[in-house]
Design a protein that fits this description.
The chain is mainly alpha-helical. It has helices at 55-88, 91-116, 119-149, 157-184, 188-215, 221-245, and strands spanning 5-9, 12-16. It has a two-stranded antiparallel ribbon with strand order 1-2.
Length: 248
Amino acid sequence: MTADVVHRHGRRVHSHPHTGTHRHLALLLRPSGPLAETHDHGDHDHGHSHGLIDPSIVRSRSGIRAVSWSLAILTLTALAQAFIYEQTLRVALLADLIHNFGDALTAIPLGVAFFLRSAQGERWAGLAVVLAIFISALVALGQTIERFINPRTLSHLWLLAAAGLIGFVGNEIAAQVRLRAGRRLHSPALVADGHHARVDGFVSVGVIASAAVVAAGMPMADPIIGLVITVVILKITWDSWRTIHGQH
């Protein structure tokens, strides 16, 4: 005969032969399932269970949190760059500023998809992110061609480099937030949005590099840097497309 085991269900403590973690039927129509294991906190040994919240709700909250944090970081980054742009009025910095604001906006449909817990909405948001990355590549290519045809003279080089550094750091932090959350939540769309933030980080690196080569007396190296960045963005576009396309 099996000895009774004392255990807890919420506030109820009772005993019966059932061992291991389990759950009694609270309602006839509610399926039973195992509860999380009992554990203790410090010196207080009290049984309770975690994981009673619907996993989709937990995933939704985590996704919204990641999108919100990254959106806040990118907004602060763009505002800092906007302040420097006001002092310099440089087209190179304006392009980087537009990239950062655009990246911040792509987080909105993804956040809505997480809020609605819509897998289809998340997929469409991911495709929109891939499209935004591709558009970034086309913009970078257009600027590169224009710089080859009409080389430009840069001024306020230190301010430009500082703005580029701010853009790179802000975008990389946002990219890490999105990439880690996307991999943890198995969200290809959030991973793609992380790559999108990284793209804008590379554009910011281009601003720094442009300021450096112009300061070194090599202005013709500026469009070459733009061409390299364009190729990198196209590679990220392809990788992001494969991530989204392989979602199903």
